[in-house]
Design goal:
By secondary structure, the protein is of the alpha/beta class. It has 3 domains: 88 residues, no CATH class; 226 residues, FAD/NAD(P)-binding domain; 167 residues, Flavocytochrome C3, Chain A, domain 1 (Alpha-Beta Complex), CATH 3.90.700.10. The strands form 5 sheets. Strands 1, 13, 14, 15, 16, 17 and 18 form a 7-stranded mixed β-sheet that branches. Strands 8-4-3-12-21-20 form a 6-stranded mixed β-sheet, with helices on one face. Strand 6 and strand 7 form a beta hairpin. Helix 6 crosses helix 7, helix 7 packs across helix 18 and helix 16 packs across helix 17. It is elongated. The chain starts with a helix and ends with a helix.
């Protein structure tokens, strides 16, 4: 259901306990479905500045007055099955939990809304790991304790210390555990300025590392005989005497399945594609945002958890912002040459035709760059045709994950971007400014100042920042716009996933609004909150969200074993 602007302009204190919030243009997420994933039925799972001072619990209570938190009426179950553990979601979290459950001798049922294993995890490329056999072989000395200390400092000590100890302390074991279940890794590298801790998956002959990962992981789950109900939507957690007693789910034919189980683990992938939920609990100034990744992340687990009495973690609205994406250009998003071109450290502008950050920040910390883009009303990326010619013959100025490699020509960037209505190419600055709705004089002044600084950067050392007196961009990325044609891209702020939600403790148990755990209820991956402060920690733990997905699933099962013995 689309909500009106008036719905979002109602006083914040009536919904979330703060100031007013305005609706912004929401751009539908693009499926990053790959050919490799498709062969295994991994189908595409198709805010303004709030300054709120309310607690997460208060936010949850007030948000419940809107229909986004309603549980629909369900018919009586037509089928009932039993299990020790019922797992919601067949992505990284759910599949890891299911396999761990089999390893530990638990009878498990997986409920997945898609037609097979995969979920949003197919969009990942690697995961963080500390003190693994990979890092040791590479001579990396970065330890679990250092990672814990750095991440807690980065997040202003909002997460629990013991949660990080349990999570990071298990990452080495998990890398080996995954390899024992058929997952292969290609390398361990740094991501931007991060420590060397990003364990990149082997992608075989597939186009996507994450797609191949889930192809192999899903095959392992099937080979282990895990009972899975695909094309089935989890709807409601069954509670009896204050404890979890199972789950109600709806099949694609409308019939209701009841799973009787004393443990339920929520791993549904977060709420990145739920427009109403995102604008209700997240924040952004940018009028244009775009979800990257699978389009199945509707926040169903958050709704069910709240219905069962769960609290939300502080920073429930945390989003993994990642910076420029050409508006409305599904074909120019994740893994494409056009995407790589759009995030290059050229000239980034806001609605006033002014620079707002050092553009090479994206190469060091895409999350930080994404927040800079988020805090503008509108955003643009500008470069010259000389830049484009360089990229399509020589490759990007800066590395873009595993697909936009330095030295690898971006051969399709030009044609893809030219086909986008949000991309303007012209012979003069005034021409492209007018096409994009920017003040031509303001843009000309910004370009003139930028060109002067770029000229001053010539002959300086690559990492010298003195020429850019405004923001301190490194000299190697100071490429002037000395002549046309000029390219001006209207860009949204992309985001990979949400990474805040249901409050969990150090054992991945869901915490209720009374501060006590809800017996038998667990939540992991992007459904769970409490791992981050206000943003993603890629600069200290690259791939932490992917690692959290797998590790939280495993940690939940390990605790569930003890719970079931009581």
């Amino acid at each position: 259901m689309k909500r009106s602007k008036q719905d979002y302009d109602e006083p914040m204190d009536e919904r979330m306990g703060g100031t007013g919030i305005s609706r912004r243009a929401f751009l539908a997420g693009a499926s990053i479905m790959t050919a490799g994933a498709a062969t295994f039925a991994l189908a595409g799972c198709g805010a303004s500045n709030t300054n709120t001072t309310s607690s997460a619990a208060d936010s949850t209570d007030t948000a419940s007055s809107t229909d986004i938190w309603a549980i629909e009426d369900l018919a009586s179950p037509s089928e009932t099955i039993t299990a020790d553990v019922c797992i919601v979601g067949g992505g990284g979290t759910g599949t890891a939990a299911a396999i761990e459950a089999i390893d530990l001798g638990l009878k498990t049922v997986v409920i997945e809304r898609l037609g097979g294993y995969g979920g949003s995890f197919i969009g990942t490329e690697g995961m963080t790991g500390f003190e693994t056999h990979w890092t040791k072989a590479a001579g990396v000395t970065y330890t679990v304790q250092q990672a814990v200390a750095n991440c807690l400092k980065y997040h202003h000590w909002i997460p629990q210390h013991q949660l990080y100890e349990n999570f990071f302390g298990q990452t080495a074991e998990t890398i080996s555990w995954l390899e024992g279940h058929g997952i292969k890794f290609d390398s361990v590298v740094a991501l931007g300025t991060s420590p060397v801790a990003w364990h990149v998956y082997d992608k075989g002959t597939a186009a996507s590392p994450g797609g191949y990962f889930m192809q192999c992981f899903g095959a392992e789950a099937q080979n282990l005989g895990i009972e899975a109900h695909f094309n089935t939507y989890a709807k409601k957690i069954v509670m009896e005497d204050g404890k979890v007693a199972g789950l109600l789910a709806q099949k694609d034919d409308g019939s209701i399945l009841k799973v009787e189980a004393p443990v339920v683990i929520l791993g549904g992938g977060g709420y990145a594609n739920n427009e109403d939920m995102l604008y209700s609990i997240s924040e952004t100034k940018n009028e244009n945002i775009q979800a990257l990744g699978m389009n199945c992340r509707n926040g169903d687990s958050l709704v069910m958890a709240k219905d069962a009495g769960a609290a939300f973690a502080e920073s429930v609205g945390t989003v993994m912002w990642c910076g420029p994406v050409a508006i409305g250009a599904i074909q120019a998003t994740w893994t494409t040459d056009a995407y790589s071109a759009g995030v290059q450290p050229v000239l980034w502008l806001n609605e006033k035709a002014e620079r707002f950050c050092r553009e090479d920040l994206w190469l060091d910390d895409f999350a930080g760059a994404g927040i800079c883009v988020r805090n503008q009303t509108k955003t643009y990326v500008m470069f010259s045709d000389a830049d484009m010619q360089y990229w399509e013959t020589t490759g990007p100025y800066g590395q873009v994950f595993s697909f936009g490699a330095i030295g690898k020509a971006l051969t399709t960037a030009r044609a893809t971007l030219q086909a986008c209505d949000s991309v303007h190419v012209g012979g003069s600055i005034a021409e492209v400014a007018q096409a994009a709705g920017l003040d031509p004089d303001a843009l000309a002044a910004t370009v003139t100042r930028y060109n002067t600084q770029c000229a001053a950067a010539k002959g300086l050392g690559d990492d010298d920042t003195t020429a850019d007196a405004d923001f301190g961009k490194r000299a190697r990325y100071m490429h002037g716009l000395d002549a046309g044609p000029y390219w001006l891209l209207e860009v949204a702020d992309g985001y990979y996933t949400t990474c805040g939600g249901i409050k969990v403790n150090e054992n991945i148990q869901v915490v209720g609004t009374d501060g006590e755990v809800i017996p038998g209820l667990y939540s992991g991956g992007s459904d769970a909150g409490g791992l981050y402060g206000d943003s993603y920690d890629v600069s200290w733990a690259p791939g932490s969200q992917a690692a959290w997905a797998v590790n939280s699933g495993r940690l939940a099962i390990k605790d569930a074993v003890d719970y079931l013995k009581k």
